[in-house]
Specification:
Elements: H1 3-12, H2 19-29, H3 40-49, H4 53-63, E1 69-70, H5 71-80, H6 87-97, H7 101-105, E2 108-109, H8 111-118, H9 165-173, E3 178-180, E4 183-185, E5 191-193, E6 203-204, H10 205-215, E7 234-236
Parallel strand pairs: 3-7
Antiparallel strand pairs: 1-2, 4-5, 5-6
Helix pairs in contact: 2-3, 5-6, 6-8, 9-10
């Protein structure tokens, strides 16, 4: 895969990475100096891209020098996280998330397995019983809090981060029904959206509303359609 193909792949799977960082990783993995990544080089690129230093730090704290979690150490971790610290639960986690078969056979959890566990729904603070709508959804719209997004246009911080229509697309595909557009006068009378009086980048208002038009109803919220029309959507200006 060439550098351009790698960039296209990242866009396809919706991973936002600075071009400079992509190029840095690409050069690091292109050990053959062929300007293309092949097989194991692509695998290494993906591994570097998915590094999670904060999870590695937690893993190192509980695993110690041997860099592996035994059943007892997993139980200690579960206990500190207010989970059920039983041996059965620790073994179950190994069976479900460990990628190395030898480690699994020896009831051990490697760093890769631990990261898989932490990034799974099991490691999510969100209560998954709320995935399904179980409340009374027959009331008027104004009786409910609707999934909303603040400063939707921002990809990063509120002072100097980039603005992007991609941020709107992500919010809408996650089910947001209320997004924010901070509108300002741009060059030649063209309205722009950005966090005013800051160093955040600007995007065209017309590009934002086009993205909203194209993605606002790609994701339907279960149980809502039978109560409210398709046009139920909010834009905060």
């Amino acid at each position: 895969m060439s550098l351009e193909e790698i960039k296209d792949l990242l866009k396809l799977i919706n991973i936002e990475v600075y071009e400079e960082y992509t190029l840095l990783l690409f050069k690091q993995c292109d050990r053959s100096k062929s300007s293309k990544l092949e097989e194991h080089e692509i695998e290494e690129f993906c591994q570097l891209l998915m590094q999670r230093p904060e999870l590695e730090e937690i893993f190192n704290y509980y695993s110690g020098e041997d860099q592996i979690l035994a059943v007892r150490e997993i139980s200690n971790f579960l206990k500190e996280q207010k989970e059920v610290p039983s041996e059965e639960n620790a073994v179950e986690l190994i069976e479900r998330f460990e990628l190395n078969e030898k480690a699994k056979q020896n009831q051990l959890l490697t760093q890769d397995g631990f990261v898989m566990y932490m990034l799974s729904p099991d490691g999510n603070i969100f209560n998954h019983s709320h995935d399904l709508i179980y409340q009374d959804m027959g009331q008027p719209l104004s009786h409910y809090f609707i999934s909303s997004s603040h400063n939707t246009y921002l990809m990063e911080d509120q002072l100097g981060g980039p603005s992007s229509t991609e941020a709107y697309i992500r919010a809408l595909l996650r089910g947001c029904r209320c997004v924010e557009l901070d509108c300002w006068d741009g060059a030649n009378g063209e309205p722009v959206v950005y966090h005013g009086h800051t160093l955040t980048s600007k995007i065209l208002f017309k590009d934002v509303v086009t993205a909203i038009r194209d993605y606002a109803f790609k994701v339907r919220l279960p149980g809502l359609e039978r109560h409210w029309p398709r046009a139920t959507f909010g834009v905060v200006l």
